[in-house]
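A favour, since you know our structure tokens better than I do. Would you make up a two-line entry for one protein for me to read? Write everything out right here, beneath this request.
=====
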Amino acid sequence: MLSLIAVSLVIAQPPTTANQPIAYVGARILTAAGQVYDDGTLVIQGSKIVGVGKSDIITVPAGATKIDVILTLPPAGPEGKSEFHVNGAPFWKAKPFLARLGETQIWTVRNESKFAHPFHLHGFFFLPLDDKLEPIHPMAWKDTLNVPVEGTIRFLVVFDERPGMWMFHCHILDHADGGLMGHVHVGPM
């Protein structure tokens, strides 16, 4: 049995079912055995601690589905109207992205526009990754991450046991209204 003296939790991936483990990352943990973990991981299931260690024990699964998202603002059309696009279409013309229940995906979001876009995903937290697909330290689960001008972000997301149509969008609402949003359909495929 693991005894903890002190735990300072920074952020958590919340559970979605009663029995699902909760993974706290970015924690400062001091165990009764004298071990100290900075930027550590604490995993709790129910009222039991089932794991503790350094955050680098979190690895990106090799079989994760890769999703590419490209954000653009093409030149204005003949009517003089500009529309932001996600993978070549504004949201009102786009098909949803697909995810199976429980599927782990790695999203690469590339911004080819001259505007920064705070990318927000409804209903799920994601873990930012570097260009080698390793977690960025200090690790923290996010629901919004800025995509810089002509920049790229990557993140890992697990579409757990919440089926339905989930929205993502630029958190600059004029950009979202101008086409920069989409949906992820989570369910059986």
